[in-house]
Design goal:
- The chain has two domains: 367 residues, Glycogen Phosphorylase B (Rossmann fold, 3-Layer(aba) Sandwich), CATH 3.40.50.2000; 282 residues, Rossmann fold.
- The strands form six sheets. Strands 1, 4, 7, 8, 11, 12, 13, 14, 18 and 19 form a ten-stranded mixed beta sheet that branches. It has a six-stranded parallel beta sheet with strand order 22-21-20-23-24-25, sandwiched between helices. The chain has a three-stranded antiparallel beta sheet with strand order 15-17-16.
- It has 33 helices and 25 strands.
- With 822 residues, the chain is an alpha/beta fold.
- Helix 13 packs across helix 14.
- Ligand 26Q binds next to helix 6.
């Protein structure tokens, strides 16, 4: 019997019993000696029991119905804390709060001791987490497959304003959410040699691959629960252990250290999450990670399919494999190997099945972000896969040669092997040709994909390019992060919007309703006060919660232009210094985000933010007119505090460079107004919330592309802006870096000479838009109306909508739709 099936009045005492049982019998603690950590574990285990039971109940029906499942392969799942989202989905928050209170313990304290599972870098990893949540809520049978990193994304601290990285230790106190499955482990091979591969590329036969080293993939399942516990799925994370923990022969020969090295090597595979997004560095261990989790996932998928269906030829009718970017692109070659070498299918048959099963999401246009692996390295680690890739390429090029436009340059560009320098395998090309559909993550991004990176491939491969604009899980980013607002909305329009987000549109009518506006405003104020407390504790800066909170939160990247935001902060500061008595609208610039440890320029930008913050926040002439804070260690939990407290959302990337953005959606959903460029999903957000409720500035993607041709130096733009000149002079003079005048000279040189991200060119228009923000803010009725309309009109950006589109157009999984299913 599950707690969910109890009558409301029985639930709280059942929860209480369960927590006590886990505490005493599971953890061996008495009620008196239990620490917050113990209470957290006992509460999490109680919640996990409920979820697991749901999962066990739901699973057989999927099996019997022979339903097609989605397998979402992602090297990152940025799930964050789970306790509150699980309790929210199960509608058990109040019961648990009550039960804990009976023990004299506060749920809010318990909640905070859960480590934030940072198994991802940013947008791509968080998207995977939101999609798994939504697939479960809308009832798509799915498995998420990823890596159980021992250390997630590094913790960020500042020393002297510079970023320092510290290891992340989310597993230190154990992980109460996971269930390990020792009976479902797989042996994953690396290296070695291949025998029996035929020479005939037209119809290649099977080969025998004998790897030299083998690592065991261990299974760690995190149950995922959908809205109101109706459906449940599994996030299966792979760990690594050696096949033979201590090689006995070496041990017996007295070589204890040698014996342990195999263990250390095997475990290294899942030791850390690579902290660089957008710049693959081609390290061997990363390739091993990619193959390891992809091969384990495919072995699991094929095992399940053979157990339940028994005919490998029917794989694509029961399995839709979605590749989250190219990190699992090796799946194309691995599935071919399974079908040809292990199941004896002909090459042609295997290729058809592979292409019918796999689809691929691209998340970037930046050429430097496209993964490439040196052929030599690839062949050493995965010799059979390299052969298979060459065979796929042979067929691919043979087909291309039949086209009359296919000159050498064309073939050179579409080849799976880059021959421009040291030969390298192009993973995006491999993913493209091995997929039935490829999708971009916003309209603009998808259009640009067609015109740029995939333009040539699209002329010869049958792969269909479609758009699937990203979405976000409202359950986490509204109900859980901003419970007061969720409650206000539910009290106003009913709670149907929780399962059918389109109902949020009903809120439009209240955008000018005085009582609603007052409550909406009050909730924002409370959220800002809560954030101010966090900022005081983290940065020792006192914020005035009535100021405009201007928020830019995301990874630090030149293309995201945190620098533009900071130049504007300097300009504001100089203005205040010029005219200390002028009436200015008080503003707090809040930034947060991590820089890849090897990305020097991004780290310099963080230092710049902290340098500006020090000067501005300590200048008595400024007071509360302007504050600048860079909040350390941005992660999902911090985002949950920042987002509901934002008045203004900074989405200011150089047009054409941000594939979509999802933070933009989270902020707008919570009622922040956007100041942004026509980039990524900003364009669609603006279309939906209304141009009058969005502060637009900057060049378009086309204009940026044109300017790039011109090679117009940023210096020109500086000549035309006195304001920008003053800002650059201040920066250059060492006003913010008295200890090192020249600290920002490299940054300035970039702005003046190449300005690759068009920061100078967009500066004046950005300044204009910011002053429009000020003017708008001075009219509270207009401001709050726009803010409420943002919340109401973001309905479409729910990840429920996004996964339904994937199910309809890519996975071909029949679904009931909201409105016609219940
Ligand atoms: C690749 C190879 C080696 C090491 C690391 C990587 C790597 C890791 C992470 C490459 C890229 C990433 C992450 C990319 C990312 O988060 N992209 C963002 O994806 C979001 C979801 O679609 C979009 O909203 C953002 O616009 C996009 O920047």
């Amino acid at each position: 019997m599950s707690i969910l099936d109890l009558r409301p009045e029985q639930k709280s005492s059942a929860v209480k019993d369960s927590i006590e049982r886990h505490l005493v019998l599971g953890l061996g603690k008495s009620l008196k000696e239990a620490t917050l950590q113990d209470w957290y574990r006992a509460t999490a285990l109680t919640a996990r029991d409920v979820v697991t039971r749901r999962w066990l109940n739901v699973r057989p029906s999927n099996k019997e119905l022979g339903k097609k499942r989605v397998y979402y392969l992602s090297i990152e799942f940025l799930i964050g804390r789970l306790l509150f989202s699980v309790l929210t989905s199960l509608d058990l928050v109040d019961e648990v709060r009550e039960a804990l209170a009976d023990f004299g313990v506060s749920l809010d304290d318990v909640r905070k001791v859960e480590p934030d599972a940072a198994l991802g870098n940013g947008g791509l990893g968080r998207l995977a987490a939101c999609y798994l949540d939504s697939m479960t809520s809308v009832g798509i049978p799915a498995y998420g497959y990823g890596i159980r990193y021992e250390h997630g994304l590094f913790a960020q601290r500042f020393r002297d304003g510079w970023q320092e990285e510290y290891p992340e230790l989310w597993l230190k106190t154990g992980n109460p959410w996971e269930l390990t499955r020792p009976e479902k482990e797989y042996e994953i091979g690396f290296g070695g040699s291949v025998e029996g591969a035929e020479d005939n590329p037209e119809n290649p036969g099977p080969a025998v691959w004998t790897p030299t080293d083998t690592v065991i993939a261990t299974t760690h399942d995190v149950p995922v629960i959908g809205w109101r516990g109706e459906h449940a799925n599994i996030l299966r994370l792979w760990g690594a252990r050696p096949i033979d923990p201590i090689r006995l022969s070496a041990f017996n020969e007295g070589d204890y250290v040698g014996a342990m090295s195999a263990k250390i090597q095997a475990e290294a595979i899942t030791r850390i999450l690579y902290p660089n997004d957008h710049t693959p560095q081609g390290q061997e261990l990363r390739l091993r990670q990619e193959y390891f989790f992809t091969a384990a996932s495919l072995a699991d998928i094929v095992r399940r399919h053979m157990e339940q269906v028994g005919d490998i030829r029917k794989l694509s009718a029961f399995a839709a494999i979605q590749l989250n970017d190219t990190h699992p692109a090796i799946a194309v070659a691995e599935l071919m190997r399974i079908l040809v070498d292990l199941h004896g299918l002909s090459w042609h048959e295997a290729w058809t099945i592979t292409r019918e099963t796999i689809s691929f999401t691209n998340h970037t246009l930046l050429p430097e972000a496209l993964e490439k692996w040196p052929v030599a390295l690839f062949g050493r680690i995965l010799p059979r896969h390299l052969q298979i890739i060459y065979l796929i390429n042979w067929h691919h090029l043979k087909n291309a040669r039949t086209k009359d436009f296919a000159d050498d340059g064309f073939l050179f560009r579409i080849s799976l092997i880059d021959e421009s320098g040291d030969k390298a395998v192009r993973m995006a090309h491999l993913a493209y040709v091995g997929s039935h559909h490829v999708n971009g993550v916003s309209q603009l991004h998808t259009e640009l994909l067609k015109e740029t990176v995939f333009q040539d491939l699209a002329k010869v491969a049958p792969t269909v390019i479609v758009n699937k604009t990203n979405g976000i899980a409202f359950r986490r980013w509204l109900h859980e992060a901003n419970p007061a607002l969720a409650k206000l909305i539910a009290d106003t329009i009913g709670d149907a919007f929780m399962s059918d987000p389109t109902r949020l549109l009903d809120l439009e009518r209240y955008a000018t309703d005085a009582s609603f506006v007052a409550q909406f405003e009050k909730i924002r104020q409370q959220n800002k006060t809560a954030l101010a407390k966090v900022v005081r504790e983290a940065s020792n800066v006192q914020l005035d919660a009535s100021a405009l909170f201007d928020v830019q939160i995301k990874r630090i990247h030149e293309y995201k232009r945190q620098c533009l935001n900071l130049l504007e902060a300097i300009a504001c500061y100089l203005d205040i210094k010029d005219e200390p008595h002028r009436d200015v609208l008080p503003r707090v610039k809040i930034l947060s985000g991590k820089a890849a440890p090897g990305y020097a320029r991004a780290k310099l930008i963080i230092k710049l933010a902290n340098d500006i913050a020090r000067v501005v926040n300590n200048d008595p002439a400024v007071g509360d007119k302007l504050k600048v804070v860079f909040v350390p260690n941005y992660n999902v939990s911090l985002a949950e505090v920042l987002i509901p407290a934002a008045d203004l959302s900074e989405q200011i990337s150089t047009a054409g460079m941000e594939a979509s953005g999802t933070g933009n959606m989270k902020l707008a959903l919570n009622g922040a107004l956007t100041i942004g460029t026509l980039d990524g999903a900003n364009i669609e957000i603006r279309e939906r919330v209304g141009a009058e409720n969005f502060f637009l500035f900057g060049m378009t993607a086309d204009q940026v592309a044109e300017k790039k041709q011109d090679r117009v130096p940023g210096g020109d733009a500086v000549q035309h802006s006195q304001r920008l000149q003053r800002v650059i002079e201040a920066l250059s003079s060492g006003l913010f870096s008295p200890d090192d005048d020249s600290r920002y000279h490299p940054l300035i040189a970039d702005l003046l000479v190449f300005d690759p991200y068009m920061t100078c060119l967009d500066f004046e228009d950005y300044w204009r838009a910011q002053r429009e923000v000020d003017a708008h803010r001075r009219n509270p009725a207009a401001w709050w109306k726009a803010s409420i309309l943002n919340t109401a009109r973001m309905a479409w950006f729910s990840s429920d909508r996004a996964v339904r589109e994937y199910a309809d157009d890519i996975w071909r999984i029949p679904l009931s739709h909201p409105g016609n299913d219940r």
